[in-house]
TrEMBL record:
Keywords: Signal. Residues 1-36 form the signal peptide. It comes from Paraburkholderia domus. One of its GO terms (biological process) is molybdate ion transport. GO terms for molecular function: molybdate ion binding. SUPFAM superfamilies: Periplasmic binding protein-like II (SSF53850). This is ABC transporter substrate-binding protein.
């Protein structure tokens, strides 16, 4: 004969309380983990949740991080009134800059297109008649104004690609980007020669910043340090050269594919400001290199008046207030003879 035991209701209630406590603790642990690192989708570009696009009608929005994304191409190509080719190391500042410019000049609202790939690649695109292919898409767009380092802008004025004068507007310095809490204990440029330290470094073939980085490496440790970082470790596989460091260096660090990389300080500050698990190690002034950013009108520009308005805006106090958020310095003419 089967016996059915009556269950004490207090026992069941106690089990219920224990279960709810376990669930609560699990949820709390999950929330703690979520706050410790950004969601996986946030690790991948474009990083600014659509803010770097001034298009008024976006139609179907289809962006799949890590799969379908054009992070360095901004705005609507249909009928722009101003096209800007901007060296990519301040892609994050272009959103508030465009917003301020359009506020001051509402006739351009939603009618600006800009690219932020490395300046050397922008020049190659210009020499290809403005045509570029990304993935399976090819398009042609010709810039009205071009922005890069002052020396590069002057060279392009000299060869007739740009029309002078060059317009300098801000300065920037280098830093070493690392993961949050600096687990590899990087303290200086000399540490970059350590064989076990994995580096993400800009490729000299595409990225002008590599010239300033090499200059700083020489200041810190002579030609031997520059050779160790850019030759010996490249051959050994512990330095990975990027095509587009302002996207790849941060991403490689967050993916644990690299331990450190030299970038512009503004790039490191932006990554920290948006909550990515990254940090930076300052480089002392006697080893650092200061760059001057400049722009100029492109010869044969379709919208020369709009380009001149942007060039006037980019070195205005209103523009500098935006740049200053990311650690850029104010351009002073006396700097021109002393910087790289």
């Amino acid at each position: 004969m089967a016996h059915i035991c009556a269950q004490n209701p207090l026992h069941g209630f106690r089990r219920f309380l224990r279960l709810m406590l376990a669930v609560s603790l699990s949820c709390a642990a999950g929330l703690a983990c979520a706050s410790a690192a950004p969601p996986e989708a946030d690790v991948f570009p474009p990083w600014q949740q659509g803010e770097n696009n001034d298009a008024l009608d976006r139609g179907l929005e289809f962006t799949v991080p890590q799969v379908d994304v054009l992070a360095d191409f901004h705005g609507n190509l249909s009928s722009p009134k101003l096209v800007l080719f901007v060296g990519g190391n301040y892609f994050f500042a272009t959103a508030p800059l465009v917003a301020q410019f359009e506020k001051d000049n509402p006739e351009y609202r939603g009618r600006i297109f800009w690219e932020t790939i490395p300046p050397g690649l922008l020049v190659k695109q210009m020499k290809a008649g403005g045509t570029i292919t990304v993935g399976n898409m090819t398009w042609t767009v010709k810039p009205d104004a071009y922005f890069a380092g002052l020396a590069k802008v002057k060279d392009l004025i000299a060869d007739g690609t740009l029309s002078g004068p060059a317009v300098p507007y801000v300065t920037n310095q280098l830093t070493i980007m690392v993961r949050r809490d600096n687990p590899q204990h990087v303290t200086s440029l000399k540490d970059l020669a350590r064989p076990e330290l994995r580096l993400a470094m800009p490729n000299p073939e595409f990225e002008g910043v590599s010239r300033q980085i090499k200059a700083s490496l020489v200041k810190a440790g002579g030609d031997a340090l520059a050779k160790a970082v850019y030759e010996d470790k490249v051959r050994a596989g512990s330095t990975e050269l990027t095509h587009i460091h302002h996207r790849q260096t941060a991403l490689f660090l967050m993916q644990d594919r690299a331990d450190a990389g030299v970038v512009w300080k503004s790039e490191a500050l932006f990554q920290e400001q948006i909550g990515h698990p990254l940090a930076h190690v300052d480089i002392p002034d006697n080893e650092n290199t200061t760059a001057i950013y400049a722009g100029a009108l492109v010869n044969g520009a379709a919208h020369p008046q709009a380009a001149r308005k942007w060039l006037a805006f980019i070195h205005s106090p209103a523009a500098f207030q935006i740049f200053e958020r990311y650690g850029f310095g104010k351009y002073e003419p006396a700097l021109s003879s002393t910087v790289q």
